[in-house]
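#data-curation
PF: Archiving a pair of folding outputs for the training set. Convention for this channel: one message per protein, sequence first, structure tokens after, nothing in between. First:
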Amino acid sequence: MASGDARHDQPCGASLRAGVFALGIRILWFTPAMQPRLAALLMLVVSTWMTTPTAWAGGKAEVKASLTFHMETESSDNPKMIFAQVVSGKAHYFRRMPEITTKDVQSFNPFPSGDSDGYGIAFKLNETAAKRYAAVTNVNQGHWMVAQMNGRVVDAVFIDQTINDGVVVVWQGATLADIKVFDDALPRIGQEGKKKK
């Protein structure tokens, strides 16, 4: 008789069946009458486990700081790899793959924008990103670079020289809400070693 078949020689006439799980390991003996209850219990455990992270978060999505810088490219590049943006009244094309991202930023410092009611932000890059930024600005002189902050294009700069100081600046377009998001994610310039509260 196979080990998974019902056995009729059990005490009190109860037929026991081996519960075999996905791995094929015998873990639990139960009667056929217990199968629906066990399935219900398993569904309850799984549904509770799947909804617990949402309960911990209070139903609110965590807002993360997002910053990307994109270099100008040719309109003839692969259309899936570029996007158009109007800069100085003319359409320019930029690479979707950013040159600099939030993970490259070590610290930041906001300042009032001179051209608008908003703010600008200076971002200090880590050592590796600073070297990469110097190389990118050296090779791409005469091209535009756009900054996207928290999902929107906020500024564009024309590259006319190599930037060796490791600081990339968004001159306008930042809001107080953007600054708050970056304050939650990054230290201010000069406070890199201090712990956040």
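PF: Second:
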Amino acid sequence: MRAVLRALGNSPQYVVEAVLLTIFGLHRIFVAWRSNGDVYDAKVIFASDISDLGGHRLAVRWLSRLIASDPQRPRAYFERGLARLELNDAEGAKDDLSMCLRIAPEFPGAQQWYSNASEWPPRVA
């Protein structure tokens, strides 16, 4: 919980969201574990939620640990690629999205985001 708040900067507008996100994320992981479901995927979703709230660096760290534990899961590469784009690390994002596509060539959205990463940062009109 403290790591989530630190990653989001302790801004009052995010405190409630961070608390709820942590509760729901841990609940999702617990339910997956309890039902012999996909705990790995529940953790990837949790990291993605953290990134969506602005905790991109924290999400990249968590997703990197997940990838190290099971490098054949495309969703973790996809989500880490998106988080890296938010950190303006287009090369890292392309590497991750490329790996995602190598593992699962039809992964939803990966080809489009790979193209976006190739043109990052987006041009402002």
